[in-house]
Amino acid sequence: MPHCVLEYNAALVEQVSVDDLLENVFEGMVAAELFASKDIKVRAHAFANHLSGASYQNFINVNVFLLPGRTVAQKQALTELVLAGLESLQIPSMEMSVQAIELEASYVKAFT
């Protein structure tokens, strides 16, 4: 934990590699100094089809799923660091968002 799910429009890979997106999110998570690097997981999911009323052609949304226990200030700093990393890629016609989502205590995990 945490789990970071990066959603983006599939055509974005013509401008930036998915590896670069994943690395920027990972580095933002590390910079927040809230988690050990070994515990951070980042995944990407491309959307070939999407519809938005906005004029932006590209989008990135990052959902950061966290266990409870972080302050509002810590979550705000975390989302700002992840967003700053993505902004540093300077992708044109881009809409970006990052949100921290606290999981309920019912979250369970297993290794096999």
| C-alpha end-to-end distance | 17 Å
What is the spatial order of strands in the main beta sheet? 2-1-3-4
CATH architecture verdict: 2-Layer Sandwich
Q: What is the overall number of helices? A: 2
Rounded to an integer, what's the Rg over CA atoms?
A: 14 Å
Number of strands: 4
Strand content: 25-35%
Portion of residues in helices?
Answer: 25-40%
CATH topology-level name: Macrophage Migration Inhibitory Factor
Q: Please tell me what the overall shape is.
A: globular
Helix and strand element order: EHEEHE
> Which blocks of ≥5 consecutive residues have pLDDT under 50?
none
Which secondary-structure class do the elements indicate?
A: alpha/beta
The largest pleated sheet is described as: 4 strands, mixed
Structural features, described:
With 112 residues, the protein is α/β, with parallel strands linked by helices. It has a single domain (3-102), classed as Macrophage Migration Inhibitory Factor. It is 27% helix and 29% strand. It has helices spanning 18-31, 72-87; strands spanning 3-9, 41-47, 58-66, 94-102. Strands 2-1-3-4 form a four-stranded mixed β-sheet, with helices on one face. The longest helix is centred in the last third of the chain and has 16 residues, at 72-87.
